[in-house]
Each structure stands twice: as C-alpha cells, then as structure tokens.
Specification:
Blueprint: H1 2-13, H2 32-52, H3 65-82, H4 88-107, E1 114-116, E2 126-127, H5 128-149, H6 158-168, H7 170-175, E3 186-192, E4 197-203, E5 207-210, E6 217-224, H8 225-232, E7 243-246, H9 248-256
Parallel strand pairs: 3-6
Antiparallel strand pairs: 1-2, 3-4, 4-5, 6-7
Helix pairs in contact: 1-4, 1-5, 2-3, 2-4, 2-5, 5-6
Length: 265
C-alpha cells in the first residue's frame, strides 16, 4: 500500500509549478510546501522507528489525551518551521528516495504481531498491520489535502481508500466504550459510493464488530465514502449534513469519533 501511495504522491508533486508551493492547504498553518515538509518528517520518523528502533523525541510522562495532542502538534510545527531551509525540489527528491526504504521497513514487520500502539483505535496493543495502515492513511489524507489545494478532485480509488476505511473503523468500537448499553445493542454503519462497507458494532462484554446482529439497533449512520473518511479525519465541512440517527449518546459518539490523533472539529 505504501509503495502505491508514494507513487501517486510523487506523480502529483511532479505537476506542481513554482507558484503553487505557496498555496494554502486545509492544514491552516501550512502551505503546500509546508505540508510536504511535514510528510518528509513523517518519513524520517517512521523509518527511524520501524527500521532502527529509534524513538527520538518522546512525550513527557503523565499526559492525558488532550495534552498528548497538544504536545504532538507543537512537535510537528517545530519540525516544519525548521525544515523551511529545505527547498521544495529537495523535499520531493528526499520523498522519492525515502519512500522505498519506508516501504521495505514495513514489509519486514510481523503484521500479525499484536504489539503496536494506535491510540485512536484501542487502549491496548493492536496488530502491527493496523499500525502500518495508520501510517499509510496519514500519507493518503495529506495527499487528498494537497489535491484540494492544487485544484484537483480527491482520489477515492478503492484500492487504497478501502483498506484505509477498514483500519479507521476500529475507532468506532474504541470510542463507543464510553457509552453504556444493554447486551446485544447494535450500531449500524453503512458506507456507500466509491467504497461500500457494512459495519455492525454490537455490545457484549464490550463494543465489538460482528457480521450481523439480531439485537436492538440503537443508532444508524449512512455515509458515502467521501463523507466517511472526511468525518473521521477532521476534513468534513462543518455545515455538512450527515444521516446519523438514533440514541443521542451514541449519535454524539459517531459524530465525534476520529481515526487520527486530534480533537474533533
């Protein structure tokens, strides 16, 4: 997945004219060049950690979720500010060179080992494949933001968006843990359009996914694929109308669930 995502990113960046690097993006603090420098920082971090086991800058102990988000935001802002000394051309060259190395590091992972940390998906260790999908989703999301900034439509091809949504869905069961419900209570999430998915989340000892359920349906979300990824990543227009109905507490969770490290907007 990462090799394909990187190929599409580099194809896009090859079309960027000099004047386009200063275009604003959906990340308010960064223009096109700044967002690409952020991706470069991601590459360096991921390769250092996955290949070399290098943790780099670690968060201060004792942070709650909001504190961790604030700390990470500052860290990323500091990196992009320092990387302004790197030209857009060199950023693209480095992304081209680093991509295969990052992909190779992922391919060496034991994807079934349950020892990864994805904070928006679980409070417990998760499979390494979910960590890999999370990293791919980070690149994919930012490419959509670059496409928008450069005046192109978003890329909803199912070969990448499908697996990314399959990873994102973990966030729903994780956030529903805050909602108490009777055993068998069921949440239906139906995704249509470019990618079609039918998710059923059922309350047992905890909320978890099931193939189907005969229990009471307490909430239903009907989203098209574009709405689904945008809602889960803080890229949805605040005035967008969503078809999410049911128990108010569950509806609130479905509206506020995010599959990124970030506060719902």
């Amino acid at each position: 997945m990462l090799r394909l995502e990187r190929e599409r990113l580099l194809d896009l960046l090859a079309s960027v004219e000099d004047v386009d690097w200063a275009r604003p993006t959906q990340c308010p603090a960064w223009d096109v060049a700044g967002l690409c420098r952020h991706l470069l920082g991601d590459d360096l971090y991921v390769l250092s950690l996955a290949r070399d086991g290098h943790q780099g800058t670690t968060p201060p102990p004792g942070l709650d979720e909001a504190g961790f988000i604030a700390w990470l935001d500052r860290l990323q802002m500091d990196w992009v500010a320092a990387a302004r000394r790197v030209s857009p051309r060199l950023v693209v060259e480095l992304l081209s060179w680093l991509g295969p190395h990052v992909a190779e590091a992922f391919e060496q992972m034991d994807l079934l080992a349950v020892d990864a940390d994805v904070s928006w998906a679980s409070d417990h260790p998760v499979p390494q494949w979910l960590e890999a999908a999370r990293e791919v989703s980070e690149y994919w999301i930012h490419r959509q933001q670059l496409l928008t900034a450069l005046g192109y439509p978003t890329d909803l091809r199912a070969d990448l968006l499908g697996p990314i949504l399959d990873a994102f869905r973990w966030a729903y069961a994780h956030r529903l843990a805050s909602v108490d419900a009777a055993p068998g209570a069921t949440v239906r999430i139906d995704v249509s359009g470019a990618v079609e998915r039918r998710w059923r989340i059922v309350r047992g000892d905890r909320w978890d996914f099931a193939e189907d359920s005969a229990g009471d349906v307490v909430a239903v979300a009907r989203l098209d694929a574009d709405q689904a990824w945008r809602l889960l990543t803080n890229n949805l227009d605040r005035n967008a109308v969503l078809d999410i109905t049911g128990d108010p507490a569950v509806v609130d969770v479905l509206r506020r669930t995010r599959a990124i490290i970030g506060t719902p907007e």
